[in-house]
Automatic annotation (TrEMBL):
Pfam families according to UniProt: Cation_efflux, ZT_dimer
Topology versus the membrane: Multi-pass membrane protein
Annotated protein name in UniProt: Protein p34
Keyword annotations of the record: Cell membrane, Membrane, Transmembrane, Transmembrane helix, Transport
Boundaries of every Cation efflux protein transmembrane domain copy: 11-202
MF terms in GO: cadmium ion transmembrane transporter activity; ferrous iron transmembrane transporter activity; zinc efflux antiporter activity
GO biological process: intracellular zinc ion homeostasis
Family: Belongs to the cation diffusion facilitator (CDF) transporter (TC 2.A.4) family.
Organism: Roseicyclus persicicus
């Protein structure tokens, strides 16, 4: 089992534990905000399952029907997670509205906050692990899952503040009011996850820092060639796709041109892990004089 798959499985187990604690906290207090917090955790379970499925699919090797691999499956999972974050926020807004219409005193608020705090601590630690490991593994599904958990942590922190203020002031309307404010923040977070995931599905180019590394590799490793132009990049899950035209002297043999391509691909693999490089070799009269300069 790969590390990404182990992390996705761990998210399911963490989700079950956190949901159980939050439901217990709501049952102890009757708090609308804590109920909303628990509702979001049900979405955590669904998105963790979606991430697990996506990572399993993305890990499959290329086949006849998917010659470029299954990497984009992770983006579909990330989009689903963003949408479900938004749905959770709408559920919270509904519960907050009902609480505003009929505010009530809470039962055992301190005990409930302690239980909810334990769930929040678990989520915070696991969210940090998912985001950090997801970036290291270049897994959009894990990163999106981690960010989703961060929104849950923020929700829980806001809920705790609201419950404490309501307890101190006896203004029980603060409970649903703060839940509504946190829901708005969750809506923003969900829309951001969707936007970033859609950029991958739309074959958005790699970040500028990565593009600079790619251009540097081509410039330094294409010795013997004339220039490189029409560079195109995109990312799909953990894979980075690099395509460009390489202009070589007209008298160069196929063997020598292939040696240059092999050298570039090997260096690209070191500079940009899990890269997929496609090079179209052209004769010298195809030079555009506007591409990447090859260093001697």
């Amino acid at each position: 089992m790969s590390r990404a798959l182990k992390l996705a499985t761990g998210s399911l187990l963490v989700g079950v534990a956190v949901l159980g604690l939050k439901v217990l906290a709501w049952w102890m207090t009757g708090s609308v905000a804590l109920l909303s917090d628990a509702l979001e955790s049900t979405v955590n379970l669904a998105t963790a399952f979606a991430a697990l499925v996506a990572i399993r699919v993305a890990a499959r090797p290329a086949d006849q029907n998917h010659p470029f691999g299954h990497h984009k499956a992770e983006f579909f999972s990330a989009v689903l997670e963003g949408v479900m974050i938004i749905i959770a926020a709408l559920f919270i807004l509904r519960e907050a509205y009902e609480g505003l219409m009929a505010p009530r005193a809470l039962d055992a608020p301190l005990e409930g906050l302690l239980v909810n705090g334990a769930a929040t601590a678990i989520n915070a630690v696991w969210a940090f692990v998912l985001v950090r490991q997801g970036r290291a593994l270049k897994s959009p599904a894990l990163v999106a899952d981690g960010r989703h958990l961060w929104t849950d942590v923020l929700t829980s922190a806001g809920v705790a503040v609201g419950v404490l203020l309501a307890l101190v002031t006896s203004w029980w309307i603060l409970d649903p009011m703060l839940a509504a404010l946190v829901a708005v923040n969750i809506l923003w977070s969900g829309s951001r996850v969707v936007k970033e995931s859609l950029s991958g599905l739309m074959d958005e180019a790699v970040p500028e820092a990565t593009l600079a590394r790619i251009r540097d590799v081509i410039s330094t490793e294409a010795r013997g060639a004339v220039e490189a132009h029409d560079l195109r990049t995109r990312h799909a899950g953990a894979a980075t796709f690099v395509e460009f035209h390489l202009v070589v002297p007209s008298e160069m043999t196929v063997y020598d041109a292939h040696e240059i391509c092999d050298r570039i691909e090997a260096a690209m693999g070191r500079a940009v892990p899990n890269s997929r490089v496609t090079i179209h070799v052209e004769p010298e009269h195809k030079s555009k004089l506007t591409g990447i300069v090859v260093l001697d």
